[in-house]
Amino acid sequence: MIKPIGVVGAGLVGSGWAIVFARAGREVRVFDSEARTLETLPDRLRANLRDLAEFELIDNPDEVFARISVVDQLADAVGEVDYVQESVFERTDVKRTIYEQLDDVVGPDTVIGSSSSGIPASEFTDGLDHRANYLVVHPVNPPYLVPVVEIVPAPWTSDTAVEKATRLMDSVGQVPVQVRREVSGFVLNRLQGALLREAWALYEEGYASLEDIDKTVSAGLGRRWSFMGPFETIDMNAPGGIRDYAERLGGLYLDIARERADPQPWSKELIAKAEAERRAALPLEDLGKRSQWRDRRLMALSAHMADRLAADGK
Ligand SMILES: NC(=O)c1ccc[n+]([C@@H]2O[C@H](COP(=O)([O-])OP(=O)(O)OC[C@H]3O[C@@H](n4cnc5c(N)ncnc54)[C@H](O)[C@@H]3O)[C@@H](O)[C@H]2O)c1
């Protein structure tokens, strides 16, 4: 019998995970320590499922919704389940406390993936009885629209747990990538961090406006990045492929990297200047509306990608 999946923490990311699993036909049990979060969960899920149906990304929102049950005890969410996805606050002490509680109530074979954005599992699972079953399974928000997940084992995570989490992610339509050993920020946020560092520096030095730096990505680099990564991109940007590209442009990139050898913090003044420019473009009270717009653009993109993959026979 296929067992349910437990979701612990039902905020932004945990509620998204519930949709990922239920959309794939799995029963889901969701727990959160805040009663108010559990009360608002059904409405949040229904709104997201309605949008997904509108973009033809799911056929039957009611069926998906019916697979998700809310429970008010941790043990009810994680007992007798196949896998648990933890998505509590990004704080080592909060993660440590919940893993100590989980360690007392989960079965000996239950694998637990943490949504941690950057804290490695070794910082909150050390010394626990079932620590070989615990690892990071880091999504992007919202996980039901952006499929990549970083699988990051602690030094003591078993190969079996890594394989089980990877197979599960594949089976529910996510795209797992393996980070072979722990590194802060994992791969995704290290890549994002490198781009952000250069973006802030160019802005601070007055080379371009915030808006134009954003456009360089949204109307430039990002267009390709929705279907191919930086290595495949450069393989096609020189007639002789990646080696030819490296020979032609390696020197330029080395000079740029040398210019940034002394990283500086994002200063208060710099942040205030960026904030003023962003708030002039988008008042704070419209941030939520714009996030909904972003999610709907992601839905349109997901629908397009699904058509493309079908056309490519993938
Ligand atoms: N927001 C993002 O863009 C994003 C993306 C990827 C990963 N993550 C990671 O996902 C995790 C959750 O982030 P979020 O953005 O959903 O935060 P959030 O604040 O929206 O949700 C966190 C939830 O955890 C609950 N919680 C806290 N302590 C708990 C406990 N002991 N037991 C049960 N529930 C508890 C809170 O009540 C809250 O509902 C973090 O590790 C975060 O870094 C976030």
Explain this structure.
This protein has about 325 residues and is α/β, with parallel strands linked by helices. It folds into two domains: about 5-180, NAD(P)-binding Rossmann-like Domain (Rossmann fold, 3-Layer(aba) Sandwich), CATH 3.40.50; about 190-280, N-(1-d-carboxylethyl)-l-norvaline Dehydrogenase, domain 2. Helices cover about 55% and strands about 10% of the residues. The chain contains 13 helices and eight strands. The chain has helices at about 10-25, 35-55, 60-65, 75-80, 90-105, 120-125, 160-170, 190-205, 210-225, 230-235, 240-260, 270-280, 285-310; strands at about 5-10, 30, 70, 85, 110-115, 135-140, 150-155, 175-180. An eight-stranded mixed β-sheet has the order 3-2-1-4-5-6-7-8. Helix 5 links the parallel strand 4 and strand 5 (about 110-115). The mean pLDDT is about 95. The structure holds nicotinamide-adenine-dinucleotide.
